[in-house]
User: Which sequence fits this backbone?
């Protein structure tokens, strides 16, 4: 910008300067979570803690880095995550390390390593934190994103599957989200799935050349994944394909039926989606997703997803232990909460202490410190700001009260107070200021 242009348009000039100041930017697909959004995050997190605890889930904190083979073996070598999305690097001792792309495999590793299977079953855990996937960043899809997830070990009873869905429903209701839909499916077990795979391969055998390049590969190494390919021509080709739910063995069929009947008893509406196979290899029987309507979620409509993984603990070397879990994509959840304009309260100071002069400033500091020690949020003016600008800041911060202390007040031993919400005002003794009843 030229100087003349700057004088003409000072706002634009400011912006120009601001941009020049940005020397470092966050990596692609990685984002900061700032106030006021952070309050939506905190609300969602604290609600999850409250609801999940009521169902007996205990927090577990798992490392962010693990040995690469933990993910490669469990998620599956031919899945999108392992084939192209993992952040994998050699450490200084040339071990292959991966930034966790999901939480289930680390929790299973921990469950076995810490012999948690010796505790009474079922053992139920939740975790919360960042996951990393090298994906093409777009709305609802990041390279570092956050999940809250749960894993429950030790029972195959469909009652647990239904309880977990019910827990998710309650969690969403507490956040005033009633618009989300539950999709459920059963993808059978190692006994019945091979028959289904055969039937699917048979159905697709003369259509392989019309599938997208990814699905042509999947036809060979992971045919079930063809069912959830988002490509519209693949969706067309799939029409009329055999349904996995028609191929379930007796045990899987009765497990699925009992699960569905419990959902009915619990008054949970759902939609059976036989194409929902989920992207990870470790799933067995129950799978489910929570999706948002188009207008809320945009392109990425799956907010939470999960399922049973009855064989994974054993495959990791542990005792045979049926298990089930899910993960909520926090960015997508928060996006919906924002779109719905849910009323999340942003904490504001209870009192702003505006002071004039050094001595009053000291008195204000002492009052603020006493109030803070009682857990009351108190803000102060700084840098000899004028009373007017201090009051402006108090207002901007949404303070409930202002206390004003100047030389006159110091002399009389009084503090002026004003309630910024209803305009009432008065005086109270400096010594009693920390007991001022409006603050409690
Ligand atoms: P998608 O089909 O959207 O790629 P996925 O099957 O890979 O999802 P899961 O591994 O089941 O996802 O993870 C559970 C949830 O985590 C997803 O439903 C989504 O809400 C969220 N999630 C997954 N990948 C990302 C990402 N890259 N950015 C933001 N959220 C994500
Ligand atoms: Mg994915």
Assistant:
């Amino acid at each position: 910008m030229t100087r003349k242009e700057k004088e003409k348009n000072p706002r634009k000039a400011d912006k120009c300067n601001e941009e020049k100041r940005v020397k470092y930017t966050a990596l692609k697909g990685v984002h900061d979570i700032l106030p006021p959004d952070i309050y939506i995050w905190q609300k969602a997190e604290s609600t999850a803690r409250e609801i999940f605890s009521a169902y007996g889930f205990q927090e577990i904190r798992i490392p962010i880095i693990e040995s690469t083979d933990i993910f490669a073996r469990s998620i599956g070598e031919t899945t999108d995550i392992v084939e192209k999305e993992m952040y994998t690097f050699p450490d200084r001792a040339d071990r292959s390390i991966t930034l966790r792309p999901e939480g289930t495999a680390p929790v299973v590793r921990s469950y076995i390593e810490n012999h948690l299977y010796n505790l009474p079953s079922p053992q139920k855990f939740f975790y919360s934190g960042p996951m990393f996937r090298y994906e093409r960043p777009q709305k609802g899809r990041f390279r570092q994103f956050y999940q809250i997830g749960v894993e429950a070990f030790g029972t195959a009873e469909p009652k647990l599957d239904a309880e977990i869905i019910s827990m998710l429903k309650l969690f969403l209701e507490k956040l005033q989200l009633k618009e989300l839909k539950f999709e459920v499916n059963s993808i059978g077990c190692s006994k019945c799935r091979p028959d289904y795979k055969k039937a699917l391969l048979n159905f697709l055998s003369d259509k392989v050349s019309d599938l997208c390049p990814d699905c042509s590969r999947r036809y060979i190494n992971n045919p079930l994944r063809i069912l959830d390919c988002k490509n519209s021509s693949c969706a067309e080709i799939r029409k009329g394909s055999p349904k996995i739910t028609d191929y379930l063995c007796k045990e899987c069929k009765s497990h699925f039926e009992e699960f569905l009947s419990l959902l009915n008893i619990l008054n949970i509406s759902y939609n059976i989606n036989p194409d929902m196979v989920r992207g990870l290899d470790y799933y067995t029987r129950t799978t489910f997703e929570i999706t948002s309507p188009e207008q809320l979620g945009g392109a990425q409509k799956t907010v939470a997803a999960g399922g049973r993984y009855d064989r994974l603990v054993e495959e990791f070397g542990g005792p045979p232990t049926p298990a089930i879990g899910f993960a909520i994509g926090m960015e997508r959840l928060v996006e919906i909460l924002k779109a719905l304009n849910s009323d999340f309260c942003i904490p504001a100071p209870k009192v702003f202490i505006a002071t004039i002069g050094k001595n009053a400033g000291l008195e204000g500091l002492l009052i603020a410190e006493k109030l803070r020690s009682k857990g009351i949020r108190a803000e102060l003016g700084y840098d000899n700001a004028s009373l007017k600008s201090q009051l402006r800041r108090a207002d901007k911060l949404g303070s409930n009260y202002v206390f004003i202390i100047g030389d006159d007040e110091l002399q009389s031993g009084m503090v002026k107070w004003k309630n910024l919400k209803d305009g009432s005002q008065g005086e109270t003794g400096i010594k009693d200021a920390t007991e001022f009843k409006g603050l409690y």
About this structure: The domain at 37-192+248-340 is CATH 3.30.930.10 (BirA Bifunctional Protein; domain 2). The mean pLDDT is 94. Residues 102, 133, 135, 140-142, 145, 147, 279, 300, 302-305, 327, 329, 331-332 surround adenosine-5'-triphosphate (ligand 1) (CB under 6 Å). Residues 37-54 form the longest helix (18 residues).
